[in-house]
Amino acid sequence: MCAWCSGASPRVSRAATINSRNRKQDRRKSMSDPLVKIARDGHVVTLTLNNPPVNALSSAVLEALIAALDTVEAEGEARCVILTGTGEKAFSAGGDLRQERDFGGPEAAKAFRELGRRTLNRLEGYFVPVVSAIHGYCIGGGTAIGWVCDIRIAADNAVFRAGDAYIGMVPSWGMGLTRLPRLVGRNRALDILLIGENFDAKTAQELGLVTKVVQREKLMEEATAIARRISKASPNAIRATREAIAFNMREGWSAMAQFEEEICQQVFSHPDAHEGPKAFTEKREPVFARI
To answer: What is the pLDDT of residues 9-28, one digit of tens each?
Structure first.
């Protein structure tokens, strides 16, 4: 992902002025045309990155995404969220290189890295599943926020790349160096990061980075269908499953075995565990409790 690791930069005072100007421009945009759009459809909410032409991930965009996630969670009605990008060029072409150019020192670079990590952690640990609907370019930081989602649907025109080394950087938001080797294994992670070439949606699916590939014009239709299906399941059971998988990514076998029993005790004592079988025997749709 396009992480801003370099400490070499123009004077801090000049960079601070430029950063302030860029943030003011972003705030003006957000008043009339938000950086992340929210669309609600029953229990499914769609969040759209809105920073054309390629939905570059500046600090303002990442902060807007976290704010949108906070808003949807506070409303409490969603059971699944779709994350996509506006326009036809890109889901997201990664971190905003204009912002990298204007960083004044290592503190600003570190703050941006931490914001990126916080964004990924927020998506991975969100209160409901997140489905990414990826089209066009998905590069650098775009791969980070796209691949961290629970379900990942890619259009047949999607193009992926994680070639940070070719702009003198390394992935630093918690995907390329942290999650990616666990998702695809050491060798494939090195292939992706060291060769740094574009690869298509079909290859991403073969690597397990993409759940399904569909025609571009059917991308949102498919993502919505999956989100609606997830919305019919028990929110409590879905959340417990996601927590267990996230725990398993970070802990060893013994700890996971113990955590599984803790999860099972919580789920099987929840009203949904009684409602589901009861609805099945009565041949009706279950009415599950909200989280």
So the answer is: 333 333 343 344 444 445 44
Name residues whose C-beta falls within 8 Å of residue 133's C-beta, 6 or more positions apart in sequence: 82, 83, 84, 91, 153, 155, 219, 220, 222, 223
Beta-sheet strand order (sheet of 44-49): 36-41, 44-49, 80-85, 130-134, 151-155, 212-214
pLDDT of 30 higher than 70: no
Q: What was the pLDDT predicted at 109?
A: 87
CATH node for 12-232: 3.90.226.10
**What gap in Å lies between CA 201 and CA 182, rounded to an integer?**
20
Give me the residue spans of the domains in the chain.
Answer: 12-232, 235-281
pTM for this one?
A: 0.88
Q: Is the pLDDT of residue 91 over 80?
A: yes
Say if residues 26 and 58 touch (Cβ distance below 8 Å).
Answer: yes
Mean pLDDT to the nearest integer, 23-36: 64
Contact partners, residue 276, CB within 8 Å, separation at least 6:
234, 286, 288
User: What sign does the dihedral 19-54-160-154 (CA atoms) show?
Assistant: positive
Q: Per the structure block, which two tokens stand in for 53?
A: 């032409």
DSSP line for 209-266: S-SEEE-GGGHHHHHHHHHHHHHHS-HHHHHHHHHHHHHHHHS-HHHHHHHHHHHHHH
